[in-house]
Amino acid sequence: MTNIVIYSNDRDTALKSILETIDEVSVRVESPAIMREHSMLNPSLIVVEPFDDLNNVLMTTKFVCPILFVGPRFNSIVRAEGYDFISTPVNEDELRVRANALLKISYYKNRMNEVSTTDELTGLHNRKYLQEALEAEISRARRYKTKVSCILFDLDFFKAVNDIYGYEWGDILLRNIAGKLDVSARKEDIVTRYGDEEFLLILPNTSEDNAFIFAERFRREVEKMEFIPAGEEERHPVTISGGIATYPCLENVTEDANTLIRYAEHALYNAKHRGRNKIVQFSQINLEYN
Q: For a Cys staple, 189 with which of 19, 97, 185, 239, CB 3.0–4.6 Å?
């Protein structure tokens, strides 16, 4: 469903009933006082009727969707994905045409963003998305004095699957693991494909111990999974190793997304060194080295 938000001082504005005639569109009217918080409403299009503080809002806000202004044109800078004007009195057919044109801009922009941040094989987020998302979560954790954990999983002996059964079955296994991980994650967690057989999970508001509980549960689930390639009578054993790192981690160290990922990589390598099919916390190997 496409969402249109109208910012108007008139709760019964006639624009609402006109825009509701557009197919598969949900329309709501909000007070201009909350226009700066537009992203919380996740609109595909904003429609704005004139109000006193409009210029100030436009000067101090960046909009992540197109805007359709109702009324005379003005010279204020508009930071949005696109914008247009429609004069008053409003012609209903013209309103629908202009709104539809801006909705197409919003759709194709979102589609391009989705393609550029999605792993084609698994449908999970890719490394580009991961970097931006993890930086945002660390910034939020720093601001609110909370924790954010990441788990880096790696399929053990994955190369053997490709070598024995072929790349098609390797891809099937990767999709199966990705699906299991996506289903196991919470709504607020961010699941990404980090490398060929590596997956990285971002867990906001999660301590290292709770991240370990999740990772260990998933490790056991993978260990039990039935993976039987075509032509085989018995299941091929599948195991996974994982490394966990949590922000904040080390005192007097400036930590960002790259730092946290590096910590998780160290923990993962340690899990591999211990014989695979294990989950290791970075804080534990750090204690061991001191």
A: 185
